[in-house]
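Write out the 3D structure for:
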Amino acid sequence: MGRSSARQSILRLFEIRNRFGQASADEKGELLDTIAGSAVRTAADARRLHLVLCFLRAFPDTVAVYRRATALLARFPRIVDDLSERERARLTDSGIAGTELNYPFSYEVAHWLARAHPGVACIDWSGFENAGRFDELLSQLLEYTETDYFDSGYVTTDEWLAIASGRSDDGGFAWLMSQLADLEKYDRFWTAMYNAAEVPVLCRLGSSKLSRTNNVYPCTKVRCRTSPMRARVANAKREICRPIDDLQHLDARAGARLIDVAMSSLAARHRETNHFNHANPKEVYVANVGAGVRIAVTGLLAEHRYPLETTMGFLILSNDIPVGYGGSSAFYRQTNTGINIFEEFRGSEAAWFWVQVMRTIHQLTGCNRFVANPYQFGADNTEALKSGAFWFYYRLGYRPVRREARALAAAEFRRVKSRKGYRTPLETLKALSACDMHLKLPGARDADFFDEGWIEFAGLLATRKLVASGQRSRRRGRKVLAGRLLQSLSIASLSDWSAEERDWFERLAPVVSALEPDQWTASERRQLTKWLRTKGGRYEREFALCFAGSERVFAALKSACRRVAREH
């Protein structure tokens, strides 16, 4: 069949992708059969077809639709290869199987690529913008006896790397990653040097699981849809508080596999986040929230945790296809979080997903307040402003924290509901995006709120304490403060603490010392000791739950940080 037949079928399939029922399922099946027997000639048609097939695989009417969509997706390397060279080039960086991906990934992602997808990535020597910084990095990896030839001018950097790596066809990428891996794994110096070099990495996706096309978590059972996409929950707060019956803590092997899926879902879209770059495979939770949708939440490895917050990432899966992601930062009984739905799955059920994410985080951390920052719904974010993202949050129960913004939102919402077709002016949306929004669950108290801007001043508290330690060496100053803190807390020894627990005790000593714990009661000091120990414990979740119950620690941090903030 011709180009017009394929295009018309793809457009129709896109149009009905989120309609369900037997009639829709039958039509989708016929359209998929037509497309399977047609030739796709343009990049635009290939993109739209890929998008709709991903959608159908995540939200199928029937098992037959799921299987047909999956079979067509498996053909994508051939579909791409059959395009003209010009059309094929237009799919570069699309993340589609059979195409190429080019991006200067961070060291963490580059290291992961070499391990999880061997043979896919190579150095793109034509893409360097500052090769001098790469030379600086490489020169630090040489044996002393190699330096004269490297610096001689007889060879270019890529020629030398080809010799050193045994004439590999990846431009020396795997060799470079193996050399860096031999060094201290998470040494910030090497990470910073690699990131400063902005090494352009080219990934030839082929049929790799790195591609959007093939990146799936193993699906045990396909869940089909017979009813329309779920809209907002009528009572979001009640739903968030509803216990999750099926919440699993994965073993390390399954956790690592899920983290790979999360990393791939972002890398194929030129994105990355610390939540997944430093995720702990031993701390991955999966909540089954119904209709084939699961929320996977990852904690951080101990050495990469944030000092005072519990920072976790999440991945939303439908039929084990990644459809969205985000991160959360819990502090005492509040959590700041946001959601991103991938392009292929917009027009599905973002509001319902979001409530289920909050429900999962609430159950894991014990938080009773969710915070949304202005950027998420419009401040310095034109896309969010024009989309009316403010109302997305408002309808779920979020409210502006400033009184004047709350009054404006209430008046404007009455207009939205009473005037059919009315759209809030951009200037009004800008005014509504001037402050945070909070969603408060039962039990949330105003006294429990901690302004996120105050957290930054905990760093100043630590600096002042390090100066007051009287030590020129900051490392020595930290040890001195840790020793004094042991005495204040009446801790005889840390010998029965794990290495991670001891490390975090010392890391937090400068901040905690500023809270003057020697003036606390014995029970309050015991609470503080437990809080310090769980920070370096096996799981981030333990610290979040411990902190949510540590009222004295919270009150002291709030008072100290607030006092320093007022100075500024």
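The first helix runs from residue 3 to 15.
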